[in-house]
Design a protein that fits this description.
The strands form two sheets. Strands 1, 2, 3, 4, 5, 6, 7, 8, 9, 10, 13, 14 and 15 form a 13-stranded mixed sheet that branches. The protein has a two-stranded antiparallel sheet with strand order 11-12. Strand 8, helix 8 and strand 9 form a beta-alpha-beta unit. The chain starts with a helix and ends with a helix. The protein has 19 helices and 15 strands. The protein is 34% helix and 15% strand. The protein has 538 residues and is α/β, with parallel strands linked by helices. Helix 13 crosses helix 14.
Length: 538
């Protein structure tokens, strides 16, 4: 998946309508009794949780030195130790991002605090006296340009099922993914641009070193994420730097195997164009001059630049080669996965930007034009696989096609490539359709994440099937984190993916196996991917 400003705006518009259902759902954790642990950096004081007198939450823990001043656009550094007791009773600020019309309200407040000093994580443990509990590390979505470890509030819900939960912030947008020749020259690896991925790796290193103090087993870590968080984790499966820090992976609506990422040279050229604009024209400012600029000015300039492309980069270090090639050759992390997508992923997105404007094709002529821009010589093949006979059919056809192209195809491909290396992949197809204002959106992007938090979707509708689906998904996810297999006694059986049968586990009002939707039509995207990989520049 490739995120763009139009998509982010549409997602914000859709989610803001959810906010009034959820405001006020967060308990004031700071009012509860304190709990203490000592980690490598010093002593922390957190808060007790209501469901168990030995359960506790530790919020706003710094896992690396804050990337400010001279540390802006550098790999994360080790955080200094502290003396005495550090309060861990409130979330740290989110990383810099454009003001969100939905996230503060979803979190039950008027505004969301952000800061360049944002490398914090949060830990929920069901029992401070237990040892060797499974660990689940959450990486939030938001197109790598927005979001927070606070949303959705998964920690306490999952901790009740007997796992230690960690949720992390990581650098976003211009501060997380800017590449420049001058920044690469500073690096002993001669690379720049993947700071957000490096933050995620640093957080996993922190978990390896410290999670035992919260009762977690550092050898039994499952990393899970949604949307761009899931895409990033897929990239970590292709990165040697992340090897050994996790045992399992859950990828929700975002993978790295279905497209081509920019090379370091391409990303640097893009960064130079932006930095020249930021410097008022002429030569690109030197790194020290850029680091002296106010974060807000840089953030605003990035948001106003439609040509700026910020995404993970094949830099020769974090990502030595295209992730799609790594997986194709079976060189990815040798771990089991849960992976899947939703039936109507793009219903809350605008289509990709065209000429600075974001729009969806509404006529046959517009649909064919869109396909030609996106697929070039293979546009007719894609139209044959996803045809529309009349203008009226275009919106629904486009929804099916683009959902499959950006999400469904990649999820299935990752399951296939996991099967090829002898590991188990559990492929899901999320089909729940909301009610009221959300009925027209179908099973929309990120909806499945809400079912992993009992404070959200189920408390809104109150329908019996909602609780059943929420409980089942939570049980699947937690059981997978505990054993590498989502199945347990009393649960609907979920069979590992087999290319010969091409089935997925439907997660919706019905829970059980079904044929992968549009599996035959998806073959055209395999040919599109192969053509793009042939054209990759070294």
């Amino acid at each position: 998946m490739r995120w763009n400003p139009g998509q982010s705006a549409e997602l914000s518009k859709a989610l803001v309508t959810l906010a009034f259902f959820f405001a006020g759902s967060f308990a004031l954790l700071a009012q509860r009794q304190p709990a203490k642990v000592t980690i490598a950096s010093g002593m922390l004081q957190g808060v007790r949780l209501d469901f168990n007198p030995r359960a506790a939450a530790f919020l706003g823990i710094p896992y690396a030195a804050q990337p400010v001043g001279s540390l802006r656009w550098r790999p994360p550094q080790v955080h200094a130790t502290w003396r005495g007791v550090r309060d861990a009773i409130a979330y740290g600020p989110a990383c810099p991002q454009a003001p969100s019309p939905w996230l503060p309200e979803m979190l039950g407040r008027k505004e969301m605090k952000t800061s360049e000093g944002c490398l914090y994580l949060n830990v929920w443990t069901p029992d401070l006296t237990r040892k060797n509990m499974p660990v689940m590390v959450w990486v939030h979505g938001g197109g790598n340009v927005e979001g927070s470890a606070e949303w959705p509030p998964l920690g306490e819900t999952l901790a009740k099922r007997g796992v230690v939960v960690v949720a992390i912030n990581y650098r976003l947008g211009i501060f997380g993914f800017l590449a420049l020749p001058s920044l690469s020259a500073e690096s002993r690896h001669k690379a720049s641009g993947n700071y957000g991925l490096l933050d995620q790796i640093a957080a996993l290193q922190w978990v390896r070193q410290n999670i035992v103090h919260f009762g977690g087993d550092p050898r039994n870590v499952t990393v899970f994420g949604a949307s761009s968080g899931s895409l990033d984790l897929c990239n970590l499966m292709a990165s040697p730097l992340a090897s050994g820090f996790y045992k399992r992976m859950i990828l929700q609506s975002g993978v790295c195997v279905d497209g081509v990422f920019p090379t370091l040279t391409q990303a640097e050229l893009n960064g130079v164009q932006f930095s020249r604009k930021l410097g008022g024209g002429g030569e690109a400012p030197r790194p020290d001059a850029l680091r002296r600029q106010a974060a807000q000015r840089i953030l605003q300039a990035a948001a106003a630049d439609p040509q700026l492309d910020l995404e993970p980069t094949v830099d020769g270090w974090v990502l030595p080669e295209q992730p799609a090639i790594v997986f194709e050759q079976g060189k990815q992390a040798d771990v089991p996965v849960i992976v899947g997508s939703n039936a109507n992923e793009i219903s809350i997105f605008a289509s990709p930007l065209v000429g600075g404007k974001s729009y969806r094709p509404k006529t046959l002529a517009q649909y064919r034009e869109w396909l030609h821009r996106q697929f070039g010589e293979q546009a007719n093949e894609v139209f044959t696989a996803y045809p529309a006979r009349t203008d009226k059919e275009v919106p629904s056809t486009f929804n099916r096609m683009d959902t499959a192209f950006q999400f469904g195809f990649g999820a299935r491909l990752l399951a296939q490539e996991t099967e090829k290396i002898g590991q188990r992949a559990f492929l899901y197809c999320f089909t729940y359709v909301g009610t009221g204002k959300f009925a027209d959106l179908g099973a929309f992007h990120s909806e499945e994440s809400m079912f992993l938090s009992k404070k959200y979707w189920t408390s809104w509708t109150g329908r019996p099937n909602d609780n059943k689906l929420s409980d089942t998904m939570i049980d699947y996810w937690v059981q997978f984190a505990k054993t590498g297999n989502p199945n347990s006694t009393g649960m609907p059986d979920w069979t590992a993916y087999r290319s010969s049968s091409a089935s997925c586990q439907e997660l919706g009002p019905r829970i059980g196996p079904q044929a992968v939707p549009y599996a035959e039509q998806m073959q055209v995207f395999q040919r599109v991917l192969a053509a793009r990989l042939r054209n990759v520049q070294p």
